[in-house]
Fold Thymidylate kinase.
Amino acid sequence: MGKLFVIEGVDGAGKNTLARRLVSAWERDGLTVVRIGFPRYDRSVHADLAAEALHGQHGDTAGSVHAMALLFALDRREAREEIRELLSHNDIVLLDRYVASNAAYTAARLEQSADGEAVEWIRSLEFERFLAPIPDVQILLDVPVALAAERASARESADAARTRDAYERDGSLQSRTSAAYGLLADSNWVSPWRIVTADVDPDRLAADLFNQPSGVRKVTP
C-alpha cells in the first residue's frame, strides 16, 4: 500500500510548484507517484458546480457556507475509490488540497476557530460518513497571505483564462483561512502535519516524508 501525502495552503501559496518538485524528487529515486488536485475541475460535476457558483452562477449557492462545503466534500467522495486504487498500485499518491482545505475555509467563512463546530462537522462528514482515506502526512505550505495574494493576482494577469474566484479575491477570508490552517497543523488534525515555508528543500522534504515510519499515529475518526 502506498503513502498518501497532502499539500495544503491558501490560494497562491505555491502548492503546485512544491508538488511538481516533490514528484520530480520521488521519481528520481525510482518511486511511482500519482498526483491529484482538488477540486477536480472538468472531472467532477460537484467541483464544476462549486467553481461556477464562485463565479456568480447558480443563484445564492456560493453564499451558503455549508452548500459549498458539501459540493467540495462530494467531489472527494466521488474520488474515494480512485484514491484507494491508486494507493494499491503506487508508492505515493500526492494530493493538492484535501479535507483540511474544506475545514479551514469553512471555519474561516463562518469566523470560527479550528476547534469549533464547523471543523468537526467536516471531519465527521468526510472521514466518517464519506470514508475519505486518511493522509499519512499533511503538509502546510506556510506563506505570508500578502505574498500569496500577489502570486494569485499575477497568475490571473498572465493567463486570460484564469479568473480568480470569490474566495481568492477575498483578502480577509484568505487571512482567516491561513490562521485556521495554522491551528489545524499545530494540533496535527486527523494525522501528522509538517509545516514548511517557500524556501523548503524539496529533495530533503521528499526523503523525509517517504522515510517517515509507518507506525506514526494517525487519528482514527
